[in-house]
Amino acid sequence: MQKQEEQLFNQILEDNKTSIYRICRIYAVSPIEPQDLFQEVIFHIWKSYSTFKGKSNISTWIYKIALNVCNRSKMQFESLNNKTKRLESIQFKLAETIPDEIEEIKFKALRECISLLNAVDGSIVIMHLDELHYKEIAAITDLTENHIAVKMKRIKKILLDCITPKLK
Known about the structure:
Layout: H1 3-27, H2 33-48, H3 58-81, H4 101-115, H5 119-129, H6 134-141, H7 145-166
Helix pairs in contact: 1-2, 1-3, 2-3, 3-6, 4-7, 5-7, 6-7
């Protein structure tokens, strides 16, 4: 990459790093996995940056890559999960990212409920939580805006039914 392209790429990453990390955190299985997923997403963005044609917003394109990488990672984990045993008792928290206890409980409940959804619905709710408009979600998922609206209505009911008992 030339110096100017490298600076542009770094600025694009800077502008989108919060959204990328949020997606990684939701799809992560273990406490340290979001960092690994984040690096994997950045690698895929860098690898395919030269193929970006500008037909959509750069953040839409990045979202699509992040969701694809995280979904692929989740499917790989699930296929390996039958063959391996996780050591859930090992916990690791970054000092700078220790959230308040109530927020962490809410996040875990939401993540657990999102994990019950199929991959497309899970992706849609994550994008909705990131305040993307239906038009942007439609562009990323290759669905129509109307289809997104209908799905969101159904997803909200499922999530509400799932999360309400967990937060009592």
